[in-house]
Structure formats: structure tokens, C-alpha cells
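Following up on my earlier message about EPZ. Here are the inputs again, as you asked, copied directly from the submission form:
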Amino acid sequence: MDKLLITGGRPLAGEVRVSGAKNAALPIMCAALLTGKPLVLDNVPRLMDVRTMAKLLALMGVEVGNQENGRLQLQAARVANPEAGYELVKTMRASVLVLGPLLARCGRARVSLPGGCAIGARPVDQHVKGLQAMGAEFSVVQGYMNASAKRLRGARIAMDMVTVTGTENLMMAATLAEGDTVLENSAREPEVVDLANCLKAMGARVEGAGTDVIRIEGVPSLSGATYRVMPDRIETGTYLAAVAAAGGKVRLTHAAPDILGATLEKLHETGARISTGTDSIEIEMGARPKSVSLSTAPYPGFATDMQAQFMALDCVARGTASMTETIFENRFMHAQELQRLGADISIQGNTAVVTGVERLQGAKVMATDLRASASLVVAGLVAQGETLIDRIYHLDRGYEALEHKLSGLGAKIARVR
Ligand code: EPZ
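Thanks, got it. Here's what our run produced:
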């Protein structure tokens, strides 16, 4: 199994290009199921999860083109087999995003329940509840959701909690439903807005994406479209946190500074100097960072997907920080691994108290999930000596060419067996 070997203690310098967003590309790929016409996507990142989604769609009968220079063409002229099997769903929870589009387009779907994951139980009850409100019937047999509906009909759906993929699934389903749908307590994440913009380019009638109330007027059919996936704000934030921790001066291009509000605010608090352009961000850090306390929240609050990277930053910062995780019940797995590098972290319930230390020491560590592995990379870039990160398949799910990009910024990093 591949590992990453990092020799830390070097500042980062130069320019890095931000990739397209994983968490926008995945739901947008599922939107291809809503029409028989071609959906041509640009700025699609080269990631394990994108390949998994492409495989899942191909098994349903979707024509999936070769991904070249960020372009990927999908066409669901016919959906012969509206099913998402356990073997693929267990490797990627986002597979549940086919449920709404399949029900809307085919009137039936058989989708494996995703089950829990390292960061939490992650049920999909809100997805099911919303689709039932639109008239779908569900049964669960041997770990599979069997769903059917002659034609979905519009409904007013108030979600019990803010759920990103729940909002996305219901929004996609509602585009072909009979009548109007109102989604209350919707997720306001930029990835939801990106999906809505793609659906509108396909002829859907969606209003209010980015607010907590989304209105969709169902239409009989959707057309094809060409759409450019937004930049990845979590990848962007990860590189910014790496510079704030390791020091240096870096310019990120093809970025979207205007959707990074809470992350940039926290980076300012560390003492980093940040300047932004329309699609670029420059960060400079010449001293030891200051500790920053935070509490994760749905957008526009501080992203849970940035918590681990900031914990690594706080491990070497001046001062003590308190970090509260409010979205997932088990998202501090990286803390034990950071302690192996000499970090001083104590956890009580959903709050971690991090006391910064002068120096981390390289060691062998293990990745447990996507963002936890990113935090070990940040810590490895700062730690004295060598850090060897095992199970980096987690990283490949969500970061395009990470070691290549970091080497370009002067880091000593290599993939080893
Ligand atoms: C999306 O997951 C992202 N994944 C996650 O990113 C991200 O951490 C999360 O949103 C929160 O921002 C994708 O977009 C593919 P939720 P999602 O439904 O939609 C509970 C990464 O690192 N809940 O918003 O699955 C749930 O358990 C990944 O890139 C229910 O109880 O998250 C959680 O506590 C990790 N019932 C909370 O809501 C439901 O039906 C928010 O989860 C749905 C959710």
C-alpha cells in the first residue's frame, strides 16, 4: 500500500493551481441521470471518488467519456439498470446522490444503504423522508433501499437538520416532479449553488440556492449542457493552512476567494498576511502562527472539512486553542496520530483543547479519513525529520496530485511503497 514520506521543516514558496471541487463534481455528475442529452463537464478533478462515480453511472447504462484536460462527457440516453450496488457504495457514501435523480427520471431505484463511516453514523433519513413527501415508496431489503414512484410530485419539505447531500438529492429530484417543491432549512454550501447553476443550465427552474429556502418548479424534461465545476474551497483551505503552519509565501490560482470567508478570517487570526484577487489568493507567513479557536458549523460557518487541518496548525502555534466539532460525532481521529508527532491535545466530548508546542517530531502515522490525512500532511511539513503516512488512499479520494503540487512549492515529499 502506498505511503507518503515527508521531510519537514521547510517553508513553502511558489504558485499552485487549485483543482475543481470534489463535492461539486460528484452531485453534478449525478445530474446527468436527469436527461437523455449529453452533459459536458469542465474542471473535473482527477480523483478516486470521481472515478468511482463514473463507474457507478456506467453500470447503470450511462455513456461515460474519457476524462481529458479536466473535461468529462456523460450521457444517460437510457438508464437500463437504476441500481447502485454495495461494492461501490461502501467505498463512497456520495453514491447516495443517484437516488433522487433515478427516482425522478426512471420512477424506481435500488440503492445500497451507505452504512456508517469513520467520522460518524451518517444516516440518510432526511433524503428518504423528503422523497417520501414527494410520493416515493420505500422498502429496505437486505441493506438495499428499494424506491419507486409513478411520478414524483412537488412538496413542502422542512429538513430536521442542515444536510448538504440531502439538499442536493431532493433538489435534483424536484426538477422533474409535478408541481412546485419548497426545501426549508436547506444547506447553503457553495457546492449546492454550483449544482443548482448546472441544473439551471440544463433548463431546470430553481430559485434560492445559497439561502435556507430553495424553490423548484418541476418541468417535464431537462436538456443537456456544458458546465464548468467550481474550484475546490477545501483543497484551497488545505494549502493555505499548510503555509500558515510551515511558513513561506504561496500564490493559489484558479481559486474562489469569495467563498472562503470563515477560513480566511481564521487564517488572519494566525498572523498570516493574505491578499486576494478575483480568482487568486496569496498568503505569506514569516513567524510562528498564533493559536486560533473555532467551532464548526454549516456554511457560511467554519467548515468541518477544514477542522483537522487547523488542528495540525494549532499543534505548532503560540498559545492554546479550543476546537468544537458540531457536525460529526467522531471527527477527532487525527488527534491521536498528531499526538504521535508530539502534539499536546486533550479531548472532552466534541471539544479538543490544543496547546501549541515549539516543535513536532516526525514519526510513522496512519490516515483514517480524507481530511484527517490532510492534517497529517500539514503536520508532516512542519515536523522535524521524516513523517511516514500510511493508508494514503484516503488522500487520493479528495486531493488531486497532492505530492506533485507540494513538491512544486519546495516540499520534500514522495510516495513510497
Ligand atoms: C457533505 O456530506 C460532504 N460530502 C462532506 O465532506 C461534509 O463534511 C459534509 O457535507 C458537511 O459539510 C459531500 O458533499 C460529498 P451532511 P453529507 O448530510 O452531505 C446528519 C469531505 O471530507 N444527517 O450535511 O453526507 C449527519 O449525520 C466530506 O469531503 C442526518 O442525521 O453531510 C451529520 O451529522 C466528508 N440525516 C449532519 O447531518 C441525514 O439524512 C450533516 O451531514 C443526513 C445528514
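One observation from looking it over: The first helix runs from residue 22 to 31. Hope that helps, and feel free to reply on this thread.
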